[in-house]
Amino acid sequence: MGSAERELLPRGMRYALGLRLVLVGTSSLWSLLFGSAPNQAITTAVVLGLNVWNLWYAYILARAARRYWWVAADVAILSGVVLTQFWTVTSDPRAGGTWVLIAMAITLITYPWLVSGLVLAVITVLLVGLHYAGTWLADPGGWLVSEAVVVWTVVEVVLSWALYRFVRRSARAADRVVEREESLRREAAVSAARRADEREYLAALHDTASATLLMVGAGVVQGRESWLAEQAARDLREVSGSQVEPTAETGLLELLRDVAAHTTLQISWSGTDVRLPAVDAVLLSRGVREALTNVVRHADTDRAEIRVLKDDNTVTVEISDHGKGFSPDQVPDHRYGVTRSLVERTKRAGGNAEIISSPGSGTTVRMTCPLRREEPSGDDARLIGTSFQRGLRWGVIVMSTAILLGLDLPRLLSSQDAYHAMWPQYVTWLGLLAVTVVVAVATWRDRPLGGSRWVLLAFVFALSILGTVSVKPEFLLGPAHWSEGDAGWQVVLLMMDSRVVVFASVLVAQYLMTFGVAVVAGQAALSVVGVVNATWAVLTYQLAIAMIAAVLRGLAVRSAKVARDEEQLRTAEAVARQLHEDRKQRYAGLAETTVPLLQGLASGELDPAEESVRRSCAVEAARMRRLFAEGSTVSDPLLHELRACIETAERLGVPVSFAERGTRPTLPAQIRRRLTEPTIAALATARGKARVTVTGTDETVTVSVLAACEPFTSTSDTDGVSISAMQSGDRWWIQATWQLT
Fold first, then answer.
1. Tell me, what's the pLDDT at 587?
2. How far apart are CA 441 and CA 279, in angstroms?
3. Rounded to an integer, what distance in angstroms lies between the CA atom of residue 445 and that of residue 389?
């Protein structure tokens, strides 16, 4: 059961109980005050007792887990009320119905929210049968004993049950639509989270393990040093995938101070702490770490300043130095540190970053992140609300059609003596049926009525006047005057999605207009009490539709919120599961290469001064740079990844010339790795100048490197890539070729 249906059932039940409490109370008390009864004392006791029971029943049933015993007690009490009408009602042909009939009918039409359809049918047969017996005891052979009352009561129950089913079915339909939308959103959220996590993981590797290995490979570290061991240990924790929970919160300043504590810079601070989602806080702290690392490497200063600024909507972190500065527009696009480690990571937090610098004027890195991320509004409330209203409208359409065909038409045809002329009655009946059909077609096509509703409403008022003025005065407001209350169902159809005040005003205006004609005529088929009873029985049912529509509109918002909360929980769980699997796979990919190197550096088992250790670190740093380049969206990924490898070699002091010619197909990442692996290994051990060349056609791609490097062994074809190596003096010519098969 979805959120819309779960929210509908208890809300609908409480509404039904409240409706019954109000309607039965007003009808019975009105008759007690202004009507007459065979035994006024007993009638008073029954009326007051029934209303006290209804109040207690509504209170207790809204809290009871098992309702059937209370419903059985309610049926028993109502059975006693309908059987004792010889004490509580007076036989009056002009009374237009009794308060007992109204109490029974209102109770029955609220039962669909409490019991199943089969139980409802049994209760209906029982109460209607007992009511018929009670009227026969009160008025044997008189006007109270009417088969029409039996038929109309059963029809009301059936229509009420149909209305309930339409609304509940619409809730289920809304839940299915919302579930489909949620599934799509969840898939998109998981995909986006995976991409963001992958990018952040690469950025973290760039800032940690890659930088450490490149530093060792370049020979910056001369031996086993304590700071290197500490740094390698921190990098190892980063590689192992230690991540924060997506839903956690943390203080930003604490993370920034921890980052600054691991640098040799003297840091001055300004600003106050800000609590952020841990994901955003860690992301910003890593950006600060990269900015401070750049200060150490390039700024030629030992001081920096960190400022944390906060306003109503954003938090800003600024890292400034007074070093030598640089020209940001001169930094190549493929350089990872500036463009992706700083700028892109803040974009993932919904913020932005900028680097302000010029030669000789220092550098300021400014990163801004929103304090509150806007949740996608979605259309859940609109979808649920539309579905509710559609279901309710179809229920009223069925009800209106059944009344026109099953009740009004027989009355019209059997009461011809009650009219001045028949054609106005036929026109009124056909017109009201036509309005119902128009609304049904619009609902079927899911098209709003718009401004045409007011034209149709004016048409309904005109039909109501026409049907009323053609009724003879002595039959006004009686059974022959079928259009008096039933024209209100078309008003309900047209005004259903209006505010309750507007809805009620228009509906009451329709009734007052009809009563006005009867007042002018000075004669009617019913007494004042009869008019109130007859009108109240129908009008309250119609006003109930307005209240149901208003409740459903509010319920749609509530259901959408519940659905969104549940969706966020399920999405968070799905994201957590998927990210856990992704991180396990990433760690497995580094477990045989990067992890042993970091473990050896952290424990001191590996000496950075040894040539073999430097070479291994240089190779692994180059592989990581290629991995970073794989995440870029470029027109030629192979060239982009090779340039990243060449940049690493140049940082190690190896001049590299590069050439490419021909056209190449876009190759999968696995094949590109096979093609670039020999180049990485050769450049990592190269002495002196090296040359890299890429050639290709639609069916072949070749990457070759010429360098004075460590010996290389040819390998057989794997994944369509063959590797050959030739030696000429101290130089090796190594070629990796992919051939389309």
1. 66
2. 52
3. 14
pTM: 0.53
For residues 213 and 210, give the distance between their C-alpha atoms in angstroms, rounded to a whole number: 5
CA atoms within 13 A on the CB side of 495: 28
**How many Cβ atoms sit within 10 Å of the Cβ of residue 576?**
16
Indicate the length of the chain as a whole number: 741
**HSE (CB half, 13 Å, CA atoms) of 713?**
2
172, 428, 709 from 621: Cα distances, Å = 56, 88, 17
- Give the whole-angstrom CA distance, residue 450 versus residue 456: 11
Can you tell me whether residue 69 is helix, strand or coil?
helix
What span, in angstroms and rounded, lies between the C-alpha atoms of 294 and 302? 12
DSSP 8-state code for residue 206 = I
Locate 639 and state its tokens.
């060239």
Say which residues have a Cβ less than 8 Å from residue 661's Cβ, sequence separation at least 6. Answer: 694, 695
SS (H, E, C) 223-246: CCCHHHHHHHHHHHHHHCCCCCCC
Is 376 buried (19+), middle (13-18) or exposed (0-12) by CB count in 10 A? exposed
Q: How are beta strands 314-321 and 363-370 bridged, if at all? A: antiparallel
Cβ-based neighbours of 283, under 8 Å, separated by 6 or more:
200, 345, 346, 348, 349, 369
Please give the average per-residue pLDDT across 187-199, as a whole number: 71
Q: Where are the alpha helices (DSSP H) in 35-67?
A: 40-61
Go through 102-117 and write b for each residue having 16 or more CB atoms within 10 A of its CB, e for each that does not: bbbbbbbbbbbbbbee
| Residue 547 to residue 103: CA distance in whole angstroms | 19
Place of tokens 């119902």: 436
CA dist., res. 75 & res. 596, Å (int): 79
Q: How far apart are CA 711 and CA 731, in angstroms?
A: 9
| 242-269 residue pLDDT tens | 555 555 677 888 888 888 887 888 999 9
Tokens matching residue 710 = 């460590």
- Is residue 346 within 8 Å of 283, Cβ to Cβ? yes
Q: Are 200 and 348 in contact (CB under 8 A)?
A: yes
Q: Is 269 left (phi over 0), alpha (psi -120 to 50) or beta?
A: beta
Phi-psi region of 558 (alpha: psi -120 to 50; beta: other; left: phi over 0): alpha
The predicted-structure confidence for 546-570, as pLDDT tens digits, reads as follows 767 766 666 666 666 666 666 666 7
The count of other CB atoms within 10 Å of the CB of residue 533 is: 22
Residue type, 438: V
**And the tokens for 430?**
């056909």
Contact 620, 594 (CB under 8 A): yes
Tokens of 381: 């409330």
Average pLDDT value for residue range 410-426: 90
Q: Do residues 157 and 109 touch, judged by C-beta distance below 8 A?
A: yes
Residue keyed to tokens 């839903």: 247
Integer Cα distance of 434 and 101 in angstroms:
32
